[in-house]
Write a structure and sequence with these properties.
binds fe (ii) ion; binds 2-oxoglutaric acid; about 15% strand; Jelly Rolls; 9 helices
């Protein structure tokens, strides 16, 4: 008699779930879906704002980034509607609690539309913490990540594949087929996951495009995957809320992140926090408007 294998399912939470509900699933499974969490108008605005860049983006050139997948970054600079998702109070509270044991703050790490086109194959399964090439000990959680469904995610169109519980596995354990589940979800839902859980984009066997928005946060002492200071330089960040600028990294923590404006001697202060750029814009800073 063969022993039936059971595919572990992702927990699905209602939109009014609490930070504790999300944390419980994240600690147990490494990932969780919150159904219909975003306002449909916000999702529609993000798609409209990002469409020109998505349409202009050619596919990638390897099985990790995909051949028929458009990957488009600088989402905060290009879509003001996306700010609401990055600053969502419940998710930020959860992120603070999840990453809090490892740092005294966190920062935006990656903003990316992943638009998986018809005929795309499976992305390689991976842990997102691999961006630091496994130099960070596994006892440290590195990322608190979200993938927002901008379109419906189905098994056929490339819903993100996730291996529940794999955030606790040793580095060399490979998932068996029955251990891989699909984060099927309706547009406006969000997959929340740890940088330690094994996952990857799915195969798109349909004629439609599967569009997701990746917003990832990391510990404030790790290098960001997407350079937020170049994606959102001061002349763009000056139009953001102070909360969003802080999330991008425009704030010094303890002795990290201060700077000296590259002005002639006597102009500008030394060793200041990036916030001072926006509090008292120095007219000679390129592109910044004075108060
Ligand atoms: O788009 C997806 O479903 C997942 C993408 C992903 O995991 C990645 O690019 O790191
Ligand atoms: Fe990933």
């Amino acid at each position: 008699m063969s022993i039936p294998t059971i595919t572990p399912q992702l927990k699905r939470l209602a939109p009014d779930c609490s930070s504790d509900d999300v944390l419980e699933s994240l600690h147990r499974d490494g990932a969780v879906v919150i159904e219909q969490y975003a306002d449909p108008a916000t999702i529609s605005s993000i798609r409209t704002e990002m469409r020109p860049w998505v349409e202009a983006c050619p596919g990638g050139g390897n099985p990790f980034v995909g051949f028929k997948t458009a990957r488009v970054g600088a989402v905060m600079a290009r879509s003001s509607a996306s700010h609401q998702l990055a600053l969502d109070p419940m998710l930020n509270e959860t992120c603070g609690a999840f990453l809090g044991p490892y740092a005294d703050g966190y920062q935006l790490h990656l903003t990316q539309i992943t638009n998986i086109g018809p005929g795309e194959g499976e992305q390689l399964l991976h842990r997102d913490r691999g961006v630091w090439n496994n130099h960070v000990p596994r006892a440290i959680e590195t990322q608190f990540s979200t993938i927002w469904a901008l379109t419906d995610f189905t098994r056929g169109n490339g819903a993100t594949r996730v291996v529940p519980g794999s955030h606790l596995w040793d580095d060399d354990r490979e998932p068996l087929p029955h251990e891989i589940t699909f984060s099927e979800m309706e547009a406006t839902s969000v997959l929340v996951y740890s940088g330690s859980v094994i996952h990857g984009g799915g195969r798109n066997e349909t004629e439609e495009h599967r569009e997701g928005l990746l917003l990832h946060n990391t510990l404030n002492w790790l290098r960001q995957e997407e350079n937020q200071y170049l994606a959102c330089p001061p002349h763009i960040a000056q139009h953001f809320s102070p909360e969003l600028r802080e999330l991008l990294g425009y704030k010094a923590y303890f002795s990290m992140g201060f700077f000296s404006p590259p002005f002639p001697p006597g102009e500008g202060s030394e060793l200041v926090s990036p916030e001072t750029l926006f509090r008292h814009p120095t007219p000679s800073w390129p592109g910044l408007e004075a108060d």
